[in-house]
Amino acid sequence: MTIDVDDSIIRPFRIDIPQADLDDLRDRLGRVRLPDSIPGTGWEMGIPVDHLAELAEYWRTTYDWRAWERRLNELPQFTTTIDGQSIHFLHVRSPEPDATPLILTHGWPGSFVEFLHVVGPLSDPRAHGGDPADAFHLVIPSIPGFGFSGPVTERGWDPTRVAGAWAQLMARLGYDRYGAQGGDWGSLVSQAIGRVDADHVIGVHVNFLAPDTGTPGDLAELSPDDKARIDRNLALQADGSAYFAIQATRPQTIGVALADSPAGQLAWMAEKFKEWTDPASGTEGSGAVDRDHMLTNITLYWLTNTAASSARFYYEVTHPAKDLRQEADPLDVRPEPPTTPWGVAVFPHDVLPVRALAERGANIVRWTEFDRGGHFAAMEEPELLVGDIRAFFRELPH
User: Fold this and answer.
1) Which of 103, 142, 370, 397 lies in disulfide reach of 88, CB 3.0 to 4.6 Å?
2) In whole angstroms, how far apart are CA 396 and each of 62, 340, 345?
């Protein structure tokens, strides 16, 4: 498929990593120098050295990138240029002609690989025991600076600018009405799409909301359960936000360490796949996510050398560069709360949003609390996530 729009074309893309890059990765993993540790400590200081050593050796000797590369290449992939940036994306059309277009956006330390378990059920529910009326045409892009959408060569790629690019991408693909879904940074991008392209967005479904601790006046009106949620979120922030502070202030410095050391890249991300997932579903000490699936995601960052550019996304969010944008921020001229319908899926081993606070700035029409699952919902609990996405969009006018 080739579409010519404003001097931009959509080109088929196929992953084909040079063997020399894979050999270099294994060579580096074979020469890992690990730090010491205090006997008897667990995860409280970070990823345990023994766990990291075992995981790194598995990555070096057993994990098969080529098998996963073949699996990824079974999905139709493309690249195009939007706002001066090369964008990589999956475009999986449903066999159901009346399927609803849906754009899915990943976060950090995720990638388009996050969505492998949900592609089939969402695009072809008939083949997965579902109602064909719930089918979606899927567009799954990589955020600029992440994976095959890297690198970025200028400032200003924050969630709003990404949302504007996604709106252009959906128009370029011929989708006039569509939905948006995401978690982590993908949630903020999806929320922004609902504002930037409100005339074309059917609804926004998210499985993550940034924590809102409210004002003293808000707290006086909240229930004891909601206050407990805020206390929990504050405790998580105090103990687990160092990665955020570093990537939001010195992304280039940490980027050097991650770009040069696969063990460093592994430790930096594997820790999050353990800490942010449901411990009740943990396997192989890596949380609720399959080890090879997690390693595919981490390997993607390594092979594309996008540790620093993905970290810069945090810097862009905390250091807005509005003066560098080609156009005014659409959010600046839309001060009123969005009217686009929102659906929120809350998984218990993630940051827990407070509905009373979230509703002040959103038109929330569906709010679902699950009894299991964590931050990586599409990888941990794909059936629950798929079911909630279907139920949300099923009730919306198309």
Assistant:
1) 142
2) 46, 10, 16
